[in-house]
Amino acid sequence: MSRVLSLIMCVSIIIGVAGCGGQQKQPSYQENKKMVIDLLKTDDGKEVIRDLLKDNDMRQAIILDEPVVRKTIVQTLTTEQGQKLWRQLLSNPDFSEQLAKTMESENEKLLRTMMKDPGYQGMMMDILKTPEMQQQYLNLMKTKPFRAQIDKSIAELMATPLFKKKLADTIVDTLKKEQEKSESTKD
Q: Which position among 43, 45, 117, 156 has the lowest Cβ density within 10 Å, counted as fewest Cβ atoms?
């Protein structure tokens, strides 16, 4: 940040000195422009620009607020070279993971919206009804981990007080019906 201030002060001093020298006339726009460009081309000027571009707020302002940049990005992504770049980037597991994390909430919103869409629901049902998917489900149900999970779920369900009460109520109802049935056959 001190370099930025140094550069700004240098430009101000040079412009001031040039204007206050023995002359009364102010430098023209073209002369000022040439001085600033010359300053920016120096090593110090380049370093100041690098420092500015490292600042997140500055980068956000430059990148996200420019419609031209947005248009360029979209055009680049749709080219064959852009698609090749994305395939290459997405093959990197670290990049893919980071990208997935940043897009997770947006993807979830999109999926929730799509789940409410009757057209999407119909397509999902069609996919689930295909013989290939049904075979996949059957194969899944035959695996040991799936069976172990089902056993665990059933055991947890049977251990709940609500299930125990419903089971006891069902047994009592069944016994009453059997008793009534046997009494009615005796008469």
A: 43
Comparison of pLDDT for 153 and 12, the residue scoring more: 153
- 176, with CB counted inside 10 A (0-12, 13-18, 19+), is exposed
- Rounded Cα distance between 61 and 70, Å, is 12
d(CA 26, CA 31): 10
How far, in Å, CA of 141 to CA of 135, rounded?
10
CA distance 7 to 48: 8
Query: Encoding tokens for residue 95?
Result: 């990049």
Tell me if 138 is assigned to some domain: no
Q: How far is CA 90 from CA 67, 71, 100, in A?
A: 26, 22, 10
**97 and 58 co-located in one domain:** no
89 and 51 in a common domain: no
Residue 143 has pLDDT above 90, yes or no: yes
Q: What predicted TM-score, i.e. pTM, was given to this entire model? A: 0.31
SS3 34: helix
Tell me whether residue 134 is in a domain: no
